[in-house]
Amino acid sequence: MDIDRSDVARGKRRKRALYLSAAVLAAIAVSVGLSQLEPAAPTVDSNSLYISTVKRGEMLRQVRGPGTLVPENLQWIAAASNGRVERVLVLPGTEVSAETVVLELSNPELTQEALDAEAGLRAAESDLEVLRAQLDSQILMQESNLAQVDSEFNQAKLQLEADQRLFEEGLLPELELNQSRLAIKHLEKRLDLETQRLERNRQSAASQLEARRSRLAQMQALHELRRDQLQALRVQAGMAGVLQEVQVEEGQRVTAGTTLARVAQPGNLKAELRVPETQARDLQNGLVASIDTRNGVVEGRISRVDPAVREGSVTVDVMLIGQLPKGARPDLSVDGTIEIERLEDVLYVGRPAYGQAHQTVSLFRLDREDEMAHRVQVQLGRTSVSTIEVLAGLEEGDRVILSDTSTWDDYDRLKLR
Description:
- With 417 residues, the chain is an alpha+beta fold.
- The protein has 4 domains: 43-59 and 345-416, conserved putative lor/sdh protein from methanococcus maripaludis s2 fold (Beta Barrel), CATH 2.40.420; 64-71 and 267-343, Elongation Factor Tu (Ef-tu), domain 3; 76-105 and 234-263, CATH 2.40.50.100; 108-231, Helix Hairpins, CATH 1.10.287.
- The chain has helices at residues 6-36, 108-168, 174-232; strands spanning 43-44, 51-53, 55-71, 74-78, 83-88, 95-96, 101-106, 234-236, 241-246, 253-254, 259-264, 269-276, 288-292, 297-305, 313-320, 333-350, 360-366, 372-383, 387-392, 399-401, 413-416.
- The strands form 3 sheets. Strands 3-12-15-14-13-16 form a 6-stranded antiparallel beta barrel. Strands 4-11-9-6 form a 4-stranded antiparallel sheet, with no helix packed on it. Strands 8-7-5-10 form a 4-stranded antiparallel sheet.
- Strand 14 and strand 15 (313-320) form a beta hairpin.
- The longest helix is centred in the first third of the chain and has 61 residues, at 108-168.
C-alpha cells in the first residue's frame, strides 16, 4: 500500500523558506545596525598637536609685518644733463657735506654751448648800449628843436606886445599887428607839435629799450642755464650725511635724469613695514608699534599708511621714538609689531591653523580626561597676531586643538594618546 508523502515535502519547503527569510532579515538588521555605528576614532599622538586653552580677560590686538629701516632724509642725486662719468671721487660709506663733489662728468657739447651763450650775452649787452646811445641822441635833437621853437614863440610874444603898444599910439599899421598875431598862432602850433613829437619819441625809445632788455634777459637766462649745467658736471652731494651708494661707473655714459648716487642722514631713520592686506584694515596714524632690529627693540608710532596695496601687502611708515640700538643703519631688515587695541573681558584662544576673523570654523575640543577630542563649531571674532576672539562654541577653560586637522575631516572624534 503506497503512503502519500506530499504533505511532508510541503512542510520541508515551508521550513526552508522560513529559514531563508529569517536569514535575510537578520542580514538586513545587521547591515542597518552597522550603518548606524560611527567610524572608529583614529588615534593621534597628543605631543604632535598644538593645543591651547580658552581664556577670558584682556586681549591685545596686534598685527605684525617685516620691513626695513629707511632714512627719513634721503637725497637722490641725478644727472642734470647728458655726460660721461670721468671720475668717482667718493666711495659709499663716506661722510659728505652738501658741497662735497661725489663724481665728475664731461660733456664737450655742453662746454661749447656755454661759451656760445656767454658770447651771445656779451653781444646782447653791446646792442643794448648802442641802441640806448642812438635813442638818447635822437631825443636830445628833438629837445633842441623844441627849445628853439619855444624861444621863437617867446620872442614872437614880445614882438606882439611891442606892436600892440605902437598900434595904440598910432605908429604901426593894423596890418603889421595882425601879422604878429598870426606869427604867434603859428609858433604856438609848432610848439605843441614839437612837444607831442618829443613825447612820442620818448615812448618809442622806451619800447625799443624794453624789447632789447627782454632779449638781453633771455640771453642772460640761457647763459646762466648753461653755466649751471656746466657746473653741475661736478656732481655735489647736495646734503650733509653719508653716501649710501654710487650707481654708475667711470667711463659710463648717462642721460639727463639718470640716478647717479644716494645720500642719507643715518641718524634719522624710520621703519617701513609691509603688513598683509588682510590685517591692515584697522591701521591708522598714531598707533603704537615696536620695531625689532635683532639687536634691540625700539618704540615708534605709525606716521603714514599707504592707501594702495602692492603684492598683497600695505606699506606702513613708523616714526621711531626711542634711541636706536647700535648697528641700526639704512636698509637693515626689521620686524614690526603694531598694537591696534586692547579688548577688555573677552573670551579668546590661540589662533588656529585655519580660521580668519569673523568666521565659523570646526575645532576639536578635548574632554576632561584629555583622552578624546570631539569636533565642535566655533564662531570667531576679532584677531591678533597669535590670538583670536571666541564669540560662541567654546567656554573658558576648554582645551582645543589648533593644529591642522584636515587629515581627519571625515571624523568627528579623535583618540589621544
